[in-house]
Amino acid sequence: MGTPLLKINHISKSFPGVKALDDISFSVEKGRVHAVMGENGAGKSTLMKCIFGLYHPDEGDIILYGNKCLFSNTRQALDNGISMIHQELQNVPSQNVMENIWIGRIPYKKVISPLRITDEDKMYKDTLALFDKLNLDIDPKKAVKDLSVSTCQLLEIARAVSYNAKLIIMDEPTSSLTDKEAAILFSIIDMLIKSGVSILYISHKIEEVMQISNEVTILRDGTLVGTYKIKDIDSDFLIRSMVGRELTNRFPQRPQNPHLGDVMLKVSHLESAVPGSFSDISFDVKRGEILGIGGLVGAQRTELMESVFGLRPVKNGTIEINGEPVTIKSSGDAIKKKMGLLTEERARTGILGKLSITDNMLVVNQRYNLPRYRKNLIFLNNTLRKSDSREYTKDLSVKTPSIDTQISSLSGGNQQKVLLGRWLMLNPDILILDEPTRGIDVGAKYEIYLIMRKLTSQGKSIIMISSEMPELMGMSDRIMVMCEGHLSGIIDGKTATDEEIMKLASSY
Ligand SMILES: Nc1ncnc2c1ncn2[C@@H]1O[C@H](COP(=O)(O)OP(=O)(O)OP(=O)(O)O)[C@@H](O)[C@H]1O
Ligand SMILES: [Mg+2]
User: Fold this and answer.
1) DSSP string spanning 429-459?
2) Fewer C-beta within 10 Å: the chain N or C terminus?
3) Where in the chain is the domain with CATH 3.40.50.300?
């Protein structure tokens, strides 16, 4: 096998209080998909950022085509044939699709300096040509703020490919894609591999890694577990190596005699005030029940639940909680009715990046439970805030040096756990979870499922939007499936099959 395309040689990197990478070495061959797996906080993204010139390793070398190269910025990495799809979406919402693709490389028409005029025609044609090559159907002139999360993700993929790189780093590229869109990505990867490009592929989705990669390197707590050929291992081995222990079940056992109580939330004939969104949706959730919501992108699941939570206007329909009609016109109204909503887009709507874990966890609770946290007229009781934050950080096994750590320095999956903690703290009766385990590792997923089961055993109701079929089927008591803004069916979660859900998701 000649010189490897990329050689990682004894790389170490520390942050205050954390050794994120400890003596990591492995090689990536040309024309291969090389997966990197490990639990949340294992050091995957940090390693990728070292390769891409975003971080400088404390020790070790990165060798590209036999040449040592530690890039001091991403421009250098891009110029040397490495591009990267980041874990957190990097799009500029205020710009349109094509400006986002060619960011930093916008073509200009010949003009007398210092005047610069964008060559819109060229940019449009180049974008169409790129999308055509990748089989993507996105309007180059559409504003990015109007795109769905999954389309934004596809856009990032297209941009990474547009650099004609030799090595493309993909940090959880499918975290917000449906199976159908993921299949588009896999065919793009296939095309790239055939032309000799290598992919460093990070994902928490075990089946996906087994399906598309040739090799896998496993990290645990910043150390190297090993590099294996996929054909030599199975998924149980993968899980065991990542988690460091046996994990026999992916989902907690369903309760023997699930005790479902009275109807907690009843939604009747709800219709969005936004034309073309959802209409005539009726469903209920009982105490102690998990109602899963399945559907494809565009099914309006998020729009529906955000409307129930008062974040979007509705035109018709009624909502009852515990048999009482309620008016919910804002998230504040919803919170006062003991509802919580964990949003799907943590980067855009969830995280207060510059603030600490404690501030992020308490931001909602200290507003709605002010008397609990008020020390006097001016100050909050910081000791109590911290002890509450410490309790949830521990319960959710958030990997962090301290609860005072800035949330943006946590790994993606650990940020998600903090946001979940934010809503658990409010002790809601009705908890809406929109893709709750996106970007979360297998072990931590299990912990979140256990928490969900614990909440329902206490008589709470959970509504879980999920694009992961196994999760929908493994956790829901009933599954409501939506298609293009319509309710296409509500089925029993214990007996539901992939086919049944897919069929309902594609027609109503
Ligand atoms: N800029 C930073 N400042 C401080 N600590 C950091 C920074 N970036 C990462 N870390 C820490 O380094 C460790 C590794 O984080 P990293 O983001 O690489 O994990 P990961 O394997 O990508 O996890 P995930 O699957 O959750 O994305 C974590 O403990 C994280 O908190
Ligand atoms: Mg990461």
Assistant:
1) SEEEEESTTTT--HHHHHHHHHHHHHHHHTT
2) N
3) 6-243, 249-338+465-508
Mean pLDDT across the chain: 91
pLDDT tens digits for range 333-342: 999 999 999 9
Q: 249-338+465-508, superfamily in CATH?
A: P-loop containing nucleotide triphosphate hydrolases (3.40.50.300)
Q: What is the pLDDT of residues 27-40, one digit of tens each?
A: 999 999 999 999 88
Ligand 1 environment, Cβ below 6 A = 15, 18, 20, 38, 40-46, 87, 399-400, 409-414, 441
Q: What is the mean pLDDT of residues 76-93?
A: 87
The answer to whether the Cα torsion of 339, 342, 344, 348 is positive or negative is positive
Q: In this structure, what token pair is assigned to residue 223?
A: 């150390």
Q: Which atom of ligand 1 is nearest the CA belonging to 413?
A: 26
Q: Which CATH class is domain 6-243?
A: alpha beta
Q: How far is the CA of 410 from the centre of ligand 2 (A)?
A: 9
Query: If DSSP codes are grouped into helix, strand and coil, which group holds residue 27?
Result: strand
User: What separation in Å is there between the alpha carbon of 45 and the centre of ligand 2?
Assistant: 4
Ligand number, closest to the Cα atom of 416 = 1
